[in-house]
Amino acid sequence: MSGRASSRTLLPAWTLARRELVRFIRQRNRVVGALAQPLLFWAIFGSGLNASFRPSTGAEGISYMEYFFPGTVVLILLLTAIFATISIIEDRNEGFMQSVLVSPVRPLGIVLGKLAGTSTLAVTQALLIFLLAPVVGLELSAKAVATAIPVLILIAVGLTALGFTIAWYSDSTQGFHAVMTAFLMPMWFLSGAFFPAAGLPAWLGWIVAANPLTYGLGALRHVLYSADPATVAGLPSFATCLGVSAAFSLAAFAAALVAAHRPRTAIHGR
Fold first, then answer.
1. C-beta separation of 164 from 251 below 8 A
2. Which of 155, 196, 223, 270 sits CB 3.0–4.6 Å from 56 for a disulfide?
3. Contact in structure between 174 and 93 (CB atoms under 8 Å)
């Protein structure tokens, strides 16, 4: 990449990523929304369903709160991506996006900036939740945490790029929330985060198997239970989970880049 091209891509990307971080710090309601809701889900559902939880083969001996813990981490990544990418619509309505689009900034710089800033926030928050793992008896080694970071980044990039694409084509925040309710949250529910895939009806099992988030969560479970592989015996292999997650992230990134090359959508909201 030439120096001129770099100045139109990398510098704007860094600036937009930094703006995302500063905005997050100043908007404390986003901190509460991205962390409080998953933790409430974890505490309420984990406690309420713990007595009736029947783990699948290989996961005997773990409580529902422990089973639900990796799903809570992924939910934090998802909600952070949602809260961050919805700002694309706000930036468009406030005129900021129009200013960016009429500047020499390349669409790649816009996408990279949004993905870098949001993924940094998402992964940081997810790692903070790792501090609660011992509460449910999940002992994480330094190696497991270090290995989890690339997996978290992969999931965060894919979800952020997907949210970016949806927000870019959305006319309003209400429309974005409708898609979130009808599509993004079911992605999480049907990823094995809330209940094991084993024993599901065949039609529901096919949906879970086709859900790319299933494999992101599966990769995270493999990493967190690397010292106890029997616990994840019923999941697809780590290589499969990682490969599907990488393919999903690349596809979502490509979709976001295609969307960003359509400035009329961002300027006029149609």
1. no
2. 196
3. no
